[in-house]
Design goal:
- Among the domains are: 62 residues, no CATH class; 84 residues, Thrombin, subunit H (Beta Barrel); 85 residues, PDZ domain (Pdz3 Domain, Roll), CATH 2.30.42.
- The chain contains four helices and 24 strands.
- 14% of the residues lie in helices and 35% in strands.
- The chain is mainly β.
């Protein structure tokens, strides 16, 4: 393999330059033909009758052999994969207790369906004014853009991606949306984008898979996949920064999980990321994660549309029941108390929290088609969202 800058001109290969093929004085080269070597110790004769001492010949042979060995080692180094040579310019340090990233981590009984999503996970380590926190980022766009929850980023001083061998590679926070408690982070690796599925058709009892990272007894991070079942869909966060946003709950174990761990459906598509590991695992749904991430990537903030209704969940997760319409809102004259919103752009809405999330990722001036149920009859109503007051 040729090194850049050492390319030979066309036609300059070996043997094309006759002036380089002439005889070279033995004292001016590092090798000897056997006919040039003295048969016994003492004085011999080389070409042209020039005297050649045996010890001088042996010395030149040793030098030539050493040169050949050195050249061989250098060729091996040049042809070795780049990943075998740690970069001296990598940011961050190597800590003795740092786990390996799943970029090179060990998979513990990962089913084939979950492999694509597992390759889209990275571990993040944040140094904050409150201490050090670890979390998981899931790739949502090319160029090393990963989404995670912002819970562990309060008072942030620095954030790194844990790379192969425990190397800490400097990452950066693109932006944080405090209303959804989601953050978009740029890591120094073009992580494959995860496969995503909308949670709109997800139902309680559906099989799911939870991917988690653990380091039980060594510095090698191990990836585990735990099967479970969806417990609830569209229930609201009752406190904290993401208050009022919808979550998915799962029967999967809530131990050894980190913020940002992905929840998958039975076919391996990501349907949510872990929002809290305390008690029953809860996950922010995909449609919210992707919508917020796209806004943060594009403008650095979420400019969300406003419909202007208050209400409650319709019985048996049957939609979002309008309780009142706010003055000056787009819903005035369009919606009435008692009507139930059951869909946004043909995507099912089962709770008020889901309605909020569906509209939250749409900018002002967006016209949306609402599926509205009134006295057993469903009609489609176009409403143009406005900016929130």
């Amino acid at each position: 393999m040729r090194e850049p800058g050492n390319e030979q001109p066309e036609g300059s290969g070996e043997g094309t330059d006759q002036s380089l093929r002439g005889w070279i004085d033995p004292d001016d080269r590092l090798w000897r033909h056997p006919s040039e070597l003295a048969a016994v110790a003492g004085l011999g004769h080389g070409p042209g009758g020039r005297p050649v001492r045996a010890h001088h010949s042996r010395l030149m042979i040793m030098i030539g052999a050493a040169a050949l060995v050195a050249a061989g080692v250098w060729v091996i180094v040049l042809l070795s994969p780049a990943s075998d040579h740690p970069s001296s310019s990598a940011e961050g340090g190597v800590t003795s207790d740092a786990p390996m990233s799943t970029l090179t981590g060990t998979a513990g009984a990962i089913p084939e369906a979950a492999e694509a999503a597992s390759r889209s996970m990275v571990q993040l380590r944040a140094v904050t004014s409150h201490g050090t926190a670890t979390m998981v980022g899931v790739a949502v766009a090319e160029g090393g853009l990963v989404a995670t929850t912002a819970t562990g980023l309060a008072g942030l001083k620095s954030v790194d991606m844990v790379g192969p061998g425990g190397h800490l590679l400097r990452a950066s926070v693109i932006a944080i949306d405090h209303n959804s408690d989601l953050a978009l982070v740029n890591v120094p690796d073009d992580v494959p984008v995860a496969p995503f599925a909308d949670d709109g058709t997800l139902t309680p009892g559906a099989n799911d898979l939870t991917l988690t990272m653990t380091a039980p007894s060594s510095t090698t991070l191990t990836l585990h996949c735990t099967p479970g079942a969806v417990a609830t869909v569209g229930s609201a966060v009752l406190s904290g920064p993401a208050d009022g946003m919808p979550v998915i709950t799962s029967s999967g174990p809530g131990v050894d999980q980190e913020e940002g761990d992905p929840l998958l459906n039975s076919t391996g598509d990501v349907i949510g990321i872990l929002y809290t590991s305390g008690g029953t695992p809860t996950f922010l749904p995909t449609q919210l994660v992707l919508g917020v991430s796209d806004d943060l990537r594009s403008t650095g903030r979420v400019s969300h549309g406003w419909l202007g209704v208050k209400g409650t969940n319709a019985p048996a997760a049957g939609g979002a029941e309008v309780g009142s319409v706010m003055a000056g809102s787009p819903a005035v004259g369009r919606l009435s108390p008692g009507e139930v919103i059951v869909g946004v752009e043909s995507i099912p809405v089962r709770t008020m929290a889901e309605l909020r999330a569906r509209l939250y990722v749409l900018p002002p001036a967006t016209t949306v088609a609402l599926s509205v149920l009134d006295d057993g009859v469903t009609r489609v109503l176009d409403v143009t969202l406005s900016a929130s007051p």
